[in-house]
Design brief:
By secondary structure, this protein is of the alpha/beta class. Helices cover 35% and strands 13% of the residues. It is built from two helices and three strands; from the N terminus they run E-H-E-H-E. The chain has a three-stranded parallel beta sheet, with no helix packed on it. It is globular and about 30 Å long. The chain starts with a strand and ends in a 7-residue tail after the last strand.
Length: 71
């Protein structure tokens, strides 16, 4: 069984964690839903890394970032 949904809301994730998640998901072909809501310190660099990941990851269909202090 593969993990298709991952909820990491309110986990105190910062930009470094967002960079690691984005890097790991560049080669992901299974995860379709990622919830990163309410991680207030993702920052611009974390958001940028996630945006770059979305350009190559065709599996991820839903990404929640509300309450992350970006934009």
């Amino acid at each position: 069984t593969s993990v298709t949904r991952l909820a990491l809301e309110e986990c105190f994730l910062g930009s470094q964690e967002a960079l690691l998640i984005a890097d790991a998901l560049k080669n992901n072909g299974v995860l379709t839903n990622l919830d990163l809501c309410s991680n207030l310190h993702l920052g611009a660099s974390g958001a940028h890394a996630l945006a770059e990941m979305l350009q190559v990851n065709m599996a991820l269909k839903k990404l929640w970032l509300n309450g992350c202090g970006i934009g």
